[in-house]
């Protein structure tokens, strides 16, 4: 049996964008930040790897992780909680300076 070819750069980029999109779809701020960072770290490790066998293994694991991430994001969206203080957008200063009796 011949070993599978290493994934193309296009395939890796496509998987990276899909995983980032899934990571950013979490409704919980902490989960969202964690998975975006984890995704970037995973692909940075893949980018720095020179051994084609190791790249193939990292890519295969990332494909599995992508499916889990997608399902987890959906569940998180279903049971999302309150927004944290860091997520609430502050009004612009000129909006807060307007009088309410006008």
Automatic annotation (TrEMBL):
Cellular component annotations (GO), alphabetically ordered: L-cysteine desulfurase complex; mitochondrion
Instruction: Give the GO biological process terms.
Output: iron-sulfur cluster assembly
Family to which the UniProt record says this protein belongs: Belongs to the complex I LYR family.
Q: What is this protein called?
A: Complex 1 LYR protein domain-containing protein
CDD domains, alphabetized: Complex1_LYR_LYRM4 (cd20264)
Q: InterPro entries from the entry?
A: Complex1_LYR_dom, Complex1_LYR_LYRM4, ISC_assembly_LYR
Q: Which residue spans traverse the membrane? A: none
Q: Where is the Complex 1 LYR protein domain?
A: 10-65
* Pfam families in the cross-refs: Complex1_LYR
